[in-house]
Design a protein that fits this description.
Elements lengths: L11 E3 L2 E3 L7 E5 L5 E13 L16 H13 L8 E3 L8 E11 L5 H5 L6 E8 L12 E9 L7 H11 L1 E4 L13 E12 L2 E8 L6 H13 L6 H7 L17 E7 L1
Parallel strand pairs: 6-12
Antiparallel strand pairs: 1-2, 3-4, 4-6, 4-7, 5-6, 8-11, 8-12, 9-10, 10-11
Helix pairs in contact: 3-4
Length: 268
């Protein structure tokens, strides 16, 4: 998969990842806050945020969200009217979930300036890179891969890591995850997990999940399932049964707490 990296004005290296300029651009004709017609340029931005103080990333009326803060900051910086149409995220994260590499698409009549926008953002939200967007880029559907990491506290857990790794092998691939996700309107329940890995260190277990797209609460329910298998509460065969749509757990799988989940990267 070819990856288009993001950059502000020159190559940068963040978390051992080098970002280089993207030269393609996209423009659209929209009305500005004075009602005049103007040509807006689309930019992709990389977004860091701590999700503790927000009701998720996606804009919701009357609630404090990451997207809502971005909309207000863009409006304050540019003097333009912004909305969820001109400030779009590549995906939503739940209340309490954090991000290092979320993607945001911004449409503005001004030359995009990350530092300028950051001055209007709270301290727990930061844009850290940007580039002009490729033509026809759609933040929800032009993504090649998403990478989540869950930090599981293992101080009071006695886990069988070999058994948990066998469970990740069963979960990898394209499956119907209806019994491991929360219903989300008319959205389908099939998804593809490209890879999973477990790494133990300092009384914590890092659970990495790579996929094209993710269903609502899928990652956190997988973490709960792996934990219960690792402690011996559930058998490995439970994974097979759930993927075969045999509901062997009538009470369902409760999602793991959100505060330990991080959206590490979104690959474009």
């Amino acid at each position: 998969m070819k990856r288009r990296s993001l950059d502000e004005s020159k190559s940068i290296d963040i978390a051992s990842r080098t970002c280089v300029p993207v030269l393609l651009g996209i423009s659209s004709i929209c009305g500005n806050h004075n009602g005049a017609r103007s040509q807006l340029t689309s930019y992709i931005g990389r977004l860091f945020y701590l999700g503790d103080e927000y009701h998720g990333s996606q804009w919701q009326p009357g609630l404090r969200t990451v997207q809502g803060e971005l909309i207000d900051a863009l409006a304050a910086w540019s003097g333009e009217t912004h909305s969820s149409s001109t400030v779009q995220l590549a995906g939503r994260t739940d209340k309490g979930v954090h991000s290092v590499g979320q993607i945001v698409l911004v449409q503005t009549d001004k030359r995009f300036n990350v530092d300028g926008v950051n001055k209007h953002l709270p301290d727990d939200i930061r844009l850290w890179a940007h580039a002009k967007a490729p033509e026809d880029f759609k933040p929800r559907y032009s993504i090649l891969m998403r990478h989540y990491r869950y930090y599981l506290d293992t101080t009071e857990l006695n886990l069988d890591l070999s058994l948990m790794k066998r469970a990740t092998q069963l979960l990898t691939g394209s499956h119907n995850f209806s019994l491991l996700s929360k219903p989300d309107g008319n959205r389908g329940t099939s998804a593809t997990i490209l890879n999973m890995s477990l790494r133990a260190a300092n009384e914590a277990l890092a659970i990495d999940v790579y996929g094209i797209s993710f269903l609502w609460k899928l990652v956190r329910k997988i973490v709960s399932l792996l934990t219960r298998i690792g402690t011996g509460e559930l058998e490995l065969n439970t994974v097979r049964k759930l993927l075969e749509q045999t509901n062997v757990l009538p009470g369902g799988i409760a999602p793991a707490p959100p505060e330990n989940l991080v959206l590490l990267d979104v690959v474009v």
